[in-house]
Amino acid sequence: MLKAAGLQVPVQQLAGSADDNLEFLDEHQRIVVKPLDGEQGHGVAVDLRSIEDVQQAIEAARQFDSRVLLESFHEGLDLRILVIGFEVIAAAIRRPAEVIGDGQHSIRALIQAQSRRRQAATDGESKIPLDAETERTLKAAGYDYNSILPRGVQLAVRRTANLHTGGCLEDVTAILHPTLVDAAVRAARALDIPMVGLDLMVLAADQPEYVFIEANERAGLANHEPQPTAEKFVDLLFPHSQPAT
C-alpha cells in the first residue's frame, strides 16, 4: 500500500527455502528478519549478513508468526511518528538499549541493572532481553555477556530501538522535516488508519530522507510526553466534545 502511494519502503519478500533466502541476502548484503504480524520488537533481527544468522533469525521469528518477512536493511536513526486524526501529533527518535561500563561488572550484570532501571521508569513496560539478538549484538562489537566493559565505555546492546526491549525516546516533534510530516500523513491515509505509529529510518529528524519500516495501529500514547497525545486521541474518539471554533 505504501509503495503504491509513492512512499519509500524497503525491498521485502516472505522467507522461503534456504536458497531463496540466500538469494535475497546476496542481493542486499544486509537484511532484516521479522514476523509478518508482530509487535513490540519481538522476533526482530536486524543487519544480518550471513545465511546462518538469517536462518537462525527466521526460526526465532516463527515463534511469533509462522509467516516471516525478509527486508533490505537501511542505516539511520529509528524515528517514530504518531499520527492521530490524520495529523502528526508527535515524533521521537528511538534509541536502542545501551549500558556504560564501570570496569568492574560483567556486561550481563550491567544489562540486568539497566533493565531494572528501565522497568522502574516505565512501570514494567521496558525490559532488555537476554536473548540471541542481544548476544549477537554483543558479539558483533567484540564482547559477550561475561566481558568486563571498561569504565566509561558506552555500548549499545540491541540493534532495534523498541521501548519494550529497553530503548528510550527523544522528542523531535518541533524539528520534524516537512517531508517526513507529509509522508506520515500520506501513509496513514493510504493505510486508512486514523491513529497509527509509523516507524521510519532517517538520517536525522530535520532531514527529508526516509524509508518506512513499520506501521503500528496500537502505538503507545504515554511515551510521547510532553506532546498532547492523549488529548488528541480523546478528540478523535469524541469529536463532538471539542469546543466550537
UniProtKB/TrEMBL annotation:
The lineage of its organism: Bacteria, Pseudomonadati, Pseudomonadota, Gammaproteobacteria, Pseudomonadales. SUPFAM superfamilies: Glutathione synthetase ATP-binding domain-like (SSF56059). PANTHER family: BETA-CITRYLGLUTAMATE SYNTHASE B-RELATED, RIBOSOMAL PROTEIN S6 MODIFICATION PROTEIN. PROSITE patterns: ATP_GRASP. It comes from Pseudomonas fluorescens. GO terms for cellular component: cytoplasm. Coiled coil: none annotated. GO terms for molecular function: ATP binding; cyanophycin synthetase activity (L-aspartate-adding); glutathione synthase activity; metal ion binding; ribosomal S6-glutamic acid ligase activity. Its EC number is 6.3.2.29. Keywords: ATP-binding, Ligase, Manganese, Nucleotide-binding. InterPro entries: ATP-grasp, ATP_grasp_subdomain_1, GSHS_ATP-bd. Residues 3-242 form the ATP-grasp domain. This is Cyanophycin synthetase. One of its GO terms (biological process) is SOS response.
